[in-house]
Design brief:
elongated; D-Maltodextrin-Binding Protein, domain 2; 8-stranded mixed beta sheet; Rossmann fold; about 40% helix; single chain; alpha/beta
Length: about 950
């Protein structure tokens, strides 16, 4: 900034210019139009703005042909309202057509009131809040403000915070006026959101105690609403207390943040963002700076400023003169505008007739200046404007990363590839501290760790090119929030305390944890399942081949076997077709035989059920029907048996008692629990599903406690529980355990769906890059290879195979095959009826042939059929020769019974019975 001496020399310019005009007059024929400006007597703030105002007037005069703006400048103190009123009245008396400035709210209000009374345009370039009672159009009728409208500027800051996903933040401000600027920011949080902390700094230049308090609170997002001259010192002290690390982010609300020299802070790791009203690379601002430097050089006053460091107020003064000159030019073309000397204390108060017309024209006129598009609303406020969102970089200082406007909000100008490249570049010299959950003994050095997590972070580090150091959290917890103490523990606390950059383990991504830390995309998906002990294996059974059929089926089969054999034997003795000639070649043979004794009947049924058949077959319809029914029955039973035999011979017999979470919830005998403070516990605590609510109530009320400190403790409790304890845990850990402990198994499916992620502090700049590395490993199949390696190959993995379900589920009972027995019974019953009919038909035929009564024939045939020891009988071809008794033969020799059916049966079994046996068997009847 310039020294006091230079400023004093500038103060002589008005007198010099007035003297020149008095002596020379309007030599070029231009009409003189005086314009007034009031600046504060604060050199650092006013010097550059006054230069911008004067040389903007000079440039207008260079291009105008009909009029010339004559600047008249006055100086006041920011707090001196009385003198300010005198100065503005002096300007009115000199016939100024507009008053520019001043920049304080107090003095600008006085000037605006006088200008309103005299109807002189009042143009200001500073922040001006809306009054509490609302804007009165009449009071602001003559005021034009080129500074962004207060509410719209506050909305821009709010949009930026929302875009950055800041859930909580701390505001540091130095004046009540500054806090008023953040009205919209204070309103974007609702009652349920994280609280916003507001801290005010006083005139004490030591900000370290305040910064340490913010650091101890764990807050990493800070908004600086302080004067530009305080910003650098505050950030310098923040660096001393380690508040400029990579996880702290700052937003500077001042539109002059770009004018500060951040050279000493360019290599800090924090994200420092600011807003800027102008494009510092535009031709307009470079041209204006050139005018300033050349003009001051002519006056022998060295002045240097780069376009990147031009103050916002200076640029606004340049644009204010430009838009006012445009209004004068275009209105003067229709009616000549003439200045008028006005008096503040006159009894006959006069107003300038052109003032209101000029102001109204400026309100509807759209211009484009150094500060972008200039559009006013009906109250003369600049409601539409563009802002550059700039970020401090180590290479270029402040760099434009996005733009904002009231219509489109935040719009990024850099690509995701540029962001990713910048992050990866910053990782090259970074050594991450990676936190692990402590399990077992304490280890030191990366080489003494092994496991999935280590290989995962090692693969990521090779992709991104960073170093890392593993550390274990002392309490060995994942991280849960204590609502009483309002603090986190475990890995989450380690990250919040900035003791680690990353947390890598089986850390589940939950909504609650997501509010405290950031996560990468999931590197593994999972769900909650049930770990339970397998049923006790039954001892090996020598007769396992009997397992495909239940015991009752075997009993029914044996009963059916015996019943069918007896029925076949009885029916064959009753059926004439089954009595055959033992010598087919001797057609005059006087006896027939029945080969179906009990042994042959048993053999036929046995051969059928074994699938081998028999060389002898029944002849009668009834016996054939019985045999057919039995063959059908045997075929079905044999098929069912062989279909299930192979599975049963290789299957362990199990006796599972639970199959799902619903089964657990319905009973009270088997206890179940989870890890205390883990995400699985939180799942049951917060679930709205009735089954899980009932399970949580059961776990919470169980005594002794069913909760464990770790998964390993839960695993051991399941093993020792003898199927009286089940453990609910995440499926990935469960799979790891069941691959090594073959007496444990997973019961049911997944109760939910979630993922493991790498955690890091909120607003970590490395989240995008690390998520990209995880995605790359997933696409290349490396994550699958890692899981296979550590789940199924390393540390005893892959020892256990899946055991099929209980054999009893595949065992066929009477309910499965009972229909076959019903068919067999119906067939046998039909065969029995047919056999009775065949027997009665034969009795009738014998009665006719032998000329005896049917009853006598029935008794004789039935008596013979029941004599199971006899397997042959005479053909009845001769009668008894006893004439005294008048007995006659029952059968005629002329009929050979079933002679044709005996052909080919020479191999039939023959008996040793003789004709003498016939008398003993009682097959001859006496005539009476």
């Amino acid at each position: 900034m310039q020294g006091m001496g230079r400023v004093v020399s500038v103060h002589y310019l008005p007198a010099i210019l007035l003297l020149v005009h008095a002596l020379c007059g309007s030599v070029d024929g231009k009409r003189e139009i005086p314009v007034g400006a009031i600046f504060h007597q604060v050199p650092d703030h006013s010097y550059e703005s006054e230069i911008a105002f004067r040389y903007a007037v000079e440039r207008v005069n260079m291009h105008e042909k009909h009029f010339e703006l004559v600047p008249i400048v006055r100086y006041v103190s920011p707090e001196d309202s009385f003198r300010t009123e005198r100065k503005v009245c002096e300007l009115a008396a000199e016939g100024v057509t507009a008053v520019f400035g001043p920049s304080s709210l107090l003095t600008a209000g006085i000037v605006g009131s006088v200008c309103k009374t005299l109807e002189i345009p009042h143009i200001i370039t500073h922040w001006d809040p809306e009054p509490l009672g609302g804007i009165e159009a009449e009071l602001r009728a003559m005021t034009i403000n080129l500074y962004p409208e207060a509410d719209v500027l506050s909305r821009a800051l709010a949009d930026l915070i929302v875009d950055y996903s800041w859930k909580s933040f701390t505001i540091i401000y130095d004046s009540d006026e500054g806090l008023m600027r953040l009205k919209d920011i204070l309103q974007i949080h609702g009652p349920a959101d994280a609280p916003i902390t507001v801290r005010q700094i006083d005139d004490d230049p030591d900000y370290r105690p305040l910064l340490k308090d913010i650091q101890s609170s764990g807050e990493s997002h800070i908004i600086l609403e302080i004067r530009p001259d305080r910003i650098l010192e505050l950030l310098r002290q923040a660096k001393e207390v380690k508040m400029l690390e990579e996880y702290q982010s700052y937003i500077i609300t001042s539109l002059d943040a770009h004018t500060i020299d951040f050279e000493e802070l360019r290599y800090s790791r924090s994200n420092i963002t600011a807003l800027r009203l102008m494009d510092t690379k535009s031709f307009d601002i470079k041209n204006a700076v050139h005018d300033w430097e050349q003009g001051e050089a002519r006056m022998k006053r060295p002045f240097r400023v780069s376009p990147e460091h031009v103050r916002t107020e200076s640029a606004l003064y340049n644009d204010a003169v430009k838009i006012y000159a445009t209004a004068i030019r275009e209105l003067d073309a229709t009616e000549e505008i003439t200045p008028a000397r006005l008096s503040c204390g006159s009894k006959n108060l006069r107003q300038w007739p052109f003032g209101l017309r000029i102001v109204n024209y400026m309100k509807v006129k759209t211009e484009h200046g150094i500060t972008g598009p200039i559009i006013f609303d009906d109250f003369g406020r600049r409601a539409h404007f563009h802002l550059d969102i700039i970020e401090l970089s180590k290479d270029e200082g402040f760099k434009k990363i996005a733009t904002w406007d009231p219509t489109h909000g935040v719009n990024y100008t850099r690509s995701q590839g540029e962001v990713y490249s910048q992050i990866v570049e910053s990782l090259q010299n970074k050594t991450f501290i990676v936190a692990e959950k402590k399990d077992g003994e304490f280890l030191e050095g990366n080489n003494r760790f092994e496991g999935y997590s280590l290989e995962l972070i090692d693969g990521i580090s090779k992709i991104l090119g960073f170093q890392y150091r593993m550390e274990l959290v002392p309490d060995g917890k994942y991280g849960s929030y204590n609502k009483v103490t309002k603090k986190w523990d475990g890995l989450v606390k380690y990250l919040l305390d900035r003791k680690a950059d990353l947390a890598v383990c089986d850390l589940t991504i939950t909504y609650e944890r997501r509010t405290a830390v950031d996560f990468t995309m999931p590197f593994m998906t999972l769900g909650i399942s049930i770990l339970y002990a397998k049923p006790v294996q039954q001892p090996k059974d020598l007769f396992s081949f009997l397992s495909p059929l239940s015991l009752d089926v075997w009993i029914y089969m044996a009963t059916a076997y015996l019943g069918v054999s007896v029925l076949l034997f009885v029916l064959s003795r009753m059926a004439p077709a089954d009595w055959e000639n033992p010598h087919p070649c001797k057609q005059d043979n006087d006896e027939v035989e029945n080969i179906w004794d009990m042994c042959n009947a048993l053999w036929l049924t046995m051969g059928s059920i074994m699938g081998q058949g028999c060389d002898i077959l029944p002849k009668a319809i009834s016996t054939r029907l019985v045999a057919g029914m039995w063959w059908f029955f045997a075929l079905i039973m044999l098929s069912s048996y062989t279909a299930n035999l192979a599975a049963f011979l290789t299957m362990e017999r199990m006796d599972a008692t639970i199959e799902s979470a619903e089964d657990l919830a319905k009973q009270s005998k088997i206890k179940y629990g989870v890890v205390m403070g883990g995400s699985t516990m939180a799942f049951f605590q917060t679930s709205n599903f009735s089954t899980y609510q009932r399970m949580w109530a059961s776990m919470e009320s169980a005594r002794p406690s069913v909760f464990t400190k770790s998964n390993d403790e839960g695993r051991d409790r399941v093993i020792k529980g003898k199927r009286m304890y089940a453990f609910l845990m995440e499926s990935t850990s469960l799979e790891y355990i069941t691959e090594r402990y073959c007496d444990l198994t997973q019961i049911g499916g997944l109760l939910d769906s979630k993922g493991y992620g790498i955690a890091m502090p909120v607003n970590s700049p490395y989240r995008t890059a690390i998520s990209g590395a995880v995605l790359k490993m997933q696409e290349e199949g490396k994550l699958y290879q890692l899981k296979t390696r550590w789940w199924k190959e390393m540390r005893g993995g892959g020892q256990c195979t899946e055991v099929p379900n209980s054999s009893q589920e595949n065992e066929l009972g009477i309910g499965n095959v009972g229909g076959v027995f019903v068919v067999l019974a119906l067939g046998c019953f039909c065969a029995f009826l047919i056999g009775i009919l065949e027997f009665l038909w034969n009795v009738r035929k014998v009665a006719v042939e032998e000329k005896v009564t049917p009853w006598d024939a029935l008794k004789a045939e039935l008596k013979f059929a029941l004599n199971i020891a006899v397997t042959s009988k005479p053909v009845h071809n001769t009668l008894s020769e006893s004439t005294a008794s008048g007995k006659s033969s029952l059968r005629s020799k002329s009929e050979s019974r079933r002679g044709s059916e005996l052909a080919g049966r020479g191999h039939s079994v023959r008996t040793a019975a003789s004709l003498s046996n016939l008398d003993k068997s009682g097959l001859a009847f006496d005539k009476h």
